[in-house]
Specification:
Strand content: 15-25%
Largest sheet: 10 strands, mixed
Bound molecules: nicotinamide-adenine-dinucleotide, 3-isopropylmalic acid, manganese (II) ion
Order of helices and strands: EHEHHEHEEEEHEHEHEHEEHHH
């Protein structure tokens, strides 16, 4: 039976890289029944649509969602990012953002588990006295015991399933003494359930040093939404480039479909020039296949990607090279 996939190509390089991901998945012999959703900045500029609730409900019926990238400089910041991407992550309760980084020639092999529904992303805050010299803007960080515990437990389970069985909490407990304290206590409580998993803690600023100078130390990392956002662009940069960084927005309870997308954005600076590296999108599709029970095809795609590394090639040529390697 064909897997039912909702496809949101989105803006900029999004549609370019998603086309290659679909080409590769089909070449790997996996049957997909895809439905395209015209959403993103371009659609918003055309008719004001971001993500209506009935479209969100339609998305619930799919086995998974594959997204390229959304957001464009012609639309004010946040309209699409919050109204489309975060709305999906939150409404579908995709509380795990799983971002793997692999560069075998440098012994880099770690996964960042980013909390995906809370923190500064939750939307708490607002303006007071807007437009006056006394203007106040607040943007709070929401951290619930429930939200932190479920993502920390997921990270422990993932670490336990890997050979090194090592989990690092990254936060800023030396300054964020409320949210950091909740994260650390929750981490310590859940750790007691996983005596075979060794643990470490890094402040996020120090983690930036280790990402650049010694990324080999990491196995699994768990962190909050904003730290995870920033660290995973850095993770991409130190493990081959942002064009290789894949991600899955997961609802591990499987009540709603999970969403798979590259870590990168719509890259307006290179859009429409066939310069984008599609490997991040292809590897995101491989993560999708893992979830769909197509682990063999996913593994074959990962192997094929590892051998297709001529980045002077155009976007479709890189896709073709992966297909040829399959
Ligand atoms: P970006 O990730 O789009 O680009 C940052 C840099 O990385 C650019 O120089 C770009 O050319 C390069 N780059 C990105 N992907 C690449 C690829 N596949 N191959 C080669 N080079 C690549 O970040 P940005 O410029 O800050 O954001 C542009 C827009 O994308 C914004 O509207 C932002 O909100 C949005 N965005 C969307 C997503 C998403 O949809 N998941 C993720 C991040 C940013
Ligand atoms: C990402 C992106 C998004 C985020 C934006 C576009 C909302 O940067 O997926 O990393 O901050 O989560
Ligand atoms: Mn990001």
């Amino acid at each position: 039976m064909a897997h039912k996939i909702a496809v949101i190509g989105g803006d900029g390089i999004g549609p370019e890289v998603v086309a290659e991901a679909l080409k590769v998945v089909r070449a790997a012999g996996v049957e997909l029944e895809t439905t395209d959703f015209d959403l993103g900045g371009a659609r918003y500029l055309a008719d004001g649509t971001v993500l209506p609730d009935d479209v969100l409900d339609e998305l619930r019926a799919f086995d998974a969602i594959l997204l390229g990238a959304v957001g464009t400089p012609e639309v004010p910041p946040g309209v699409i990012e919050r109204g489309l991407l975060l709305k999906m992550r939150f409404a579908l309760d995709q509380f795990v953002n799983q971002r793997p980084f692999l560069l075998p020639e440098k012994d880099i092999d770690f996964i960042v588990i980013r909390e995906n529904t809370e923190g500064t992303y939750a939307g708490e805050g607002g303006f007071l006295r807007k437009g006056t010299p006394q203007e106040i803007a607040t943007q709070g960080s929401v951290n619930t015991r429930h939200g932190v515990e479920r993502v920390v437990r997921y990270a422990f389970e993932l670490a336990q399933s890997r050979p090194r069985k090592h989990l690092t909490l990254v936060h800023k407990t030396n300054v964020l003494t409320f949210s950091g304290d909740l994260w650390q206590r929750t981490f310590d409580d859940v750790a007691a359930e996983f005596p075979d998993v060794t643990t470490a803690y890094n402040h996020v600023d120090a983690a930036c040093i280790y990402f650049v100078q010694d990324p080999q130390r990491y196995d699994v990392i768990v962190t909050d939404n904003l730290f995870g956002d920033i660290l995973t662009d850095l993770g991409g940069a130190v493990s081959g480039g942002i064009g290789f960084a894949s991600s899955g927005n997961l609802d591990p309870t499987r009540q709603a479909p999970s969403m798979f997308e590259p870590v990168h954005g719509s890259a307006p600076d290179i859009a429409g020039q066939a310069k984008a590296n599609p490997i991040a999108a292809i590897l995101s599709a491989a993560l999708m296949l893992d979830l769909l029970g197509e682990g063999d095809a996913a593994e074959r795609i990962r192997k094929a990607c590892a051998s297709a590394t001529d980045l002077t090639a155009s976007t479709p040529e890189i896709g073709d090279a992966v297909v040829a390697a399959l």
